[in-house]
Design brief:
about 350 residues; 8-stranded mixed β-sheet; alpha+beta
């Protein structure tokens, strides 16, 4: 017997958004997530301007700190661009998770603490985590069990393996821009949030310690000297993940589970929301193959631009990224605006 139209494996932001999309489309939905409470993750926590109307459409408007542009810095120069339209928002991941879960509950989404480990499907539906539904959306993150169970996961590449680390500090924001500090060994994202703290997220290869990374950016190390840490240090990665396709019968992958390039451009939530919307639309149409085509479309620019920038960041040309942005301000501004959409 089918318990729901849609079973979502994973209760992170994209999984919750997918469940909300299902309810808005008139489908019943259950989210399977063994973790309790708002789910945290090591990430930059900046919602790009394009993510805000997408969240608003779902009825979700989290509190945050308004951010009006991007500032690339390398210790010698600062290259800034302010968004032409709208603003980004610095939002604690736990606050975003709580807002999405509250909206999902308001719309009648069911919740289960079962963990999806095995996936079995037949002509009428999918059984996973002790639950059954007509469709399964795998939204269980970078190391997706659903992708592995369905044979959609590809081996993660051994080159350009990058990891993230993030911690918050009690300190008043000093800027209304998303600062990205480029040092020889890492990028550090500075994201003010609405609770009187800032998050410092480090992107680097394996083995780079968080405090060692901060020490490579003296101006940041000096700013937070003596500041009270208000969250535990968290890590995530490796970021670069690949999948063969995004659809296997009645199973569709969304968010990081569908494949990921790098966190460098901060578009994860915006792209994930677009995937959730496209996946549910395909289910309503009874045409899961349509989602594969739309996934290619909604992620194409992200994959190209982020892939190119991540490649440069891992190459001997890394030290020229900020100087190039300074020499070519219109190109830099154009890239920022493309990411902001």
């Amino acid at each position: 017997m089918t318990d729901a139209d849609v079973l979502v494996a994973g209760g992170g932001p994209v999984g919750l958004a997918a469940a909300i999309e299902a309810r808005l489309a008139g489908l019943s939905a259950i989210v399977a997530e063994p973790r309790t409470g708002p789910i945290d993750k090591a990430c930059g926590e900046g919602l790009m301007p394009g993510a805000l109307p997408a969240l608003g459409r779902l009825g979700v408007r989290p509190a945050g700190f308004a951010l009006h542009g991007v500032d690339y810095r390398d210790g010698r120069r600062s290259v800034q661009h302010r968004f032409a339209h709208g603003h980004a928002l610095g939002v604690r991941r736990t606050a975003l998770s709580a807002a999405l879960r509250a909206r999902a509950a308001e719309l009648g989404v069911g919740f289960s603490q079962d963990r999806v480990v095995e996936v079995r499907q037949d002509a009428g539906g999918v059984t996973a985590g002790g639950l059954r539904a007509r469709w399964l959306l795998g939204a269980d993150g970078l190391h997706s069990q659903v992708a592995r169970e369905t044979g959609l996961a590809r081996p993660a590449p051994r080159t350009r393996r990058r990891f993230g680390q993030r911690q918050h500090f009690r300190i008043e924001p000093w800027t209304d821009l998303i600062e990205v500090h480029w040092s020889p060994v890492c990028e550090i994202y500075v994201t003010p949030t609405a609770d009187g703290s800032i998050g410092l997220a480090v992107l680097a290869r394996r083995g780079v310690r968080y405090r060692d990374a901060l020490a490579t950016v003296p101006e940041l190390a000096e700013r937070i000297a003596g500041a009270e840490p208000v969250s535990d240090l968290r890590g995530a990665g490796p970021f670069r993940q690949r999948t063969r396709t995004r659809v296997a019968g009645r199973v569709l992958l969304v968010g990081d589970a569908a494949g990921y390039v790098d966190a460098l451009t901060g578009e994860g939530i915006r792209i994930g929301l677009a995937q959730a919307r496209a996946a549910v639309a395909a289910l309503v149409a009874g045409d899961p193959a349509r989602y594969e085509r739309e996934w290619e479309e909604v992620t194409r620019e992200f994959r190209r631009l982020t892939g190119a920038l991540a490649g440069l960041a891992a190459s001997p040309l890394r030290g020229g990224i900020v100087p190039a942005a300074a020499r070519l301000p219109r190109v830099y501004a154009g890239a920022v605006e493309r990411l902001a959409r």
